[in-house]
Amino acid sequence: MSESNISGPLAAEYRDLAVYARLAAVTTIWGGTFVAGRYLAGGLTPLLAASLRFLLASLALLGFMALARIPLARPNLRQFGQLALLGFFGIFFYNLCFFLGLQQVNASRASLIVALNPAVIALASWALFKERLGRRQLLGIVLCLSGAALVICSRDPSALAVQAGGWRGDLLILGCVLGWGVYSLFSKGLNHSLGPLQTVTYSILLGTLMLCVATLARGEFEWQALARLNFAQGLSLLYLGVLGSALAYIGYYDGLRRIGATRAGVFIALNPLTAVILGALLLEEQVSLVMGLGGALILGGIYQCNKPLAGRAKKAIL
């Protein structure tokens, strides 16, 4: 068989592998946000921390575009409305539900609920956009959910405990899943027309504005709180804004554009695993055999979700 017949499928497979590597890097960065958040805990009120995080993300994105001489696009009215929708659900609504929910449920239980993201994204993609959802994808999602649950519950068994009146907190954290689902699914047209960089920049700018207005309305915008942060907390805030928001969001949106919401969404299941690994390395937290089993299930689930296309590429070569 000639080289030209082989190069097409191989090139597509290598491109997919590059996307997988970037998405794995994104989830590693997001896993690090849990460690950074723990360093920052107690230094700032949650809403102020969220506002400052995305203010830094906004400055980083605008600074990068200025250095690269990339002008801000001029979206039409319809596109601007879509960008405002993404900013509302993906930045403002998500953070509001997350921080309010954490006042009523513990962080481990919240992580367990947020781990539903891949399943919600896949089912919504299938129902709304007719994206393929075969048996392999369903098996992969189940494996990812099971692995994430093992990692989280082995770290904190109380994650499964239902507290009196905790249903309000559970509903708020489910709001996070809804917000991230909208942010993942309704970017498709904008990702192709404006590109991931412009889409992320506009959505973060608009979401940051909403967060800042809410923080000011609650009287929590105190610049003096920044002066009280120590060096580690300041670095944590920079990490959350520049890496955990600006860079990671662009990488995630690029993955959505290239391989679709279902296949990209399952990588979110790596978040609790990378958070545990980084916690062990940086915070000397304990890692158990059950966590390792959970991690193996997550990796197996991601492989199952992305295996079919690789299989078809190999058949095309033969």
3D architecture notes:
The chain has 318 residues and is mainly alpha-helical. The protein has one domain. It has helices spanning 3-40, 46-67, 77-101, 107-114, 117-129, 135-155, 167-185, 188-193, 196-217, 224-227, 231-259, 261-265, 270-283, 289-317. The longest helix has 38 residues, at 3-40. The N and C termini lie close together (9 Å). Residues 1-6 and 309-318 have low confidence and may be disordered.
From the alpha carbons, calculate the radius of gyration and give it in angstroms: 20 Å
Distance between the termini: 9 Å
Along the chain, the helix and strand elements come as: HHHHHHHHHHHHHH
Question: Which stretches of 5+ consecutive residues score pLDDT under 50?
Answer: 1-6, 309-318
Helix content: over 70%
Shape: globular
Strand content: under 5%
Question: Could you give a quick summary of the protein structure above?
Answer:
The chain has 318 residues and is mostly helical.
How do the strands and helices of this protein lay out in sequence?
Blueprint: H1 3-40, H2 46-67, H3 77-101, H4 107-114, H5 117-129, H6 135-155, H7 167-185, H8 188-193, H9 196-217, H10 224-227, H11 231-259, H12 261-265, H13 270-283, H14 289-317
Characteristic key phrases:
single chain, 318 residues, mainly alpha
